[in-house]
Amino acid sequence: MQSSNRVVVVGAGVFGCAAAYYLAKRGAAVTVIERDDFSAHASSNNPGNLNPIHGAPTALLPLSLTSFELHRELADNLADLGCPSYERQPVSRVLVAFDEQDSLHLHEAEQAFVGMEGFSCSRLEGNAVRHLDPRISHKVRTALLISGNMSINSALFHQALADGAAGLGARFVRDEVTALERDNNVITAARTRDRLFPCDQLVLATGPWISQAEKWLGVVQEVKPVKGEMLRIALPGAPLTYDFTRGMISLYRRGLNECWIGVTKDQVGFDETPSTGGRRHLLQAAMEIMPCVADAQVLDHRAALRPMTPDGLPLAGRVPGWRNCYLANGGGIKGMLLCSGIGTAIADLIFDGETAIPMPMPISLQ
Fold this sequence. Notes:
By secondary structure, this protein is α/β, with parallel strands linked by helices. The protein is built from 8 helices and 18 strands.
């Protein structure tokens, strides 16, 4: 990268946009190629949680915590570039337990926070939880109150990240990459239906749509599409002041008097259609936590595909056997959080050949 700095990024989800932003910030001439509507997929359709500890595999914690800190700097830098606010704010979450099995999960979560500076958790009994919000079900026996996390509006953040990259000179092209030009083990250009985009470096951030890239590179990416559905509702009564979670189901406080119910986790191929079954499951599970959900108005129902790996670790780094091709994929349920760390790492690897970002080593890239 001493003199040749044309980088093509394939995919404009948060991983692709973050890579474009950090590369452009370091002076690369970046072109991002995206075939679909910018806000069509998971990067703009998720709860927007920045929670680096809860639900993170142990091997992911160093990257999660580093990415969390990088988000602070990123928010300031995007604001300096004139990007609009994306509702970044502190959020406290209450993990609720109905039975012994739930209580076991609470204990595991509690242990994960031991010694974590900047975060705290405390036990609550059922009545104390209902003091936080009297609408909480009397089935709740105990709970864990977690503080220190942040939340963002995912769609606004996704747009701000793209705007920030564009403000630094990156260009975004709506087109589909159909082939890669190569010279031995070097990618020389990305070809679309009508154009050729010469490049010195290539970043593949295609999410779960990996089949073409696997054929082009001869490398298997262990990434599967996992469908997540969410509901946006208007709750009766006062706005939520906490997020409430039991297992996979959460009520997330967002907006003035709205909340999101999420999330499902289904392997149904590439079907992104919101389903009647998903809606029913989300409402029933949320009513278990907060019975007044039965009287809520459903404002929106969304579904999106998250790129998941078997071990929950992202695929990020230089592709084995290729001198100038990099992957940024597999963010799963932590994609909004990890994009800052992954984007920084990709830029470091391309410019410096190494990175100080504590990257886990997934099996697929060993």
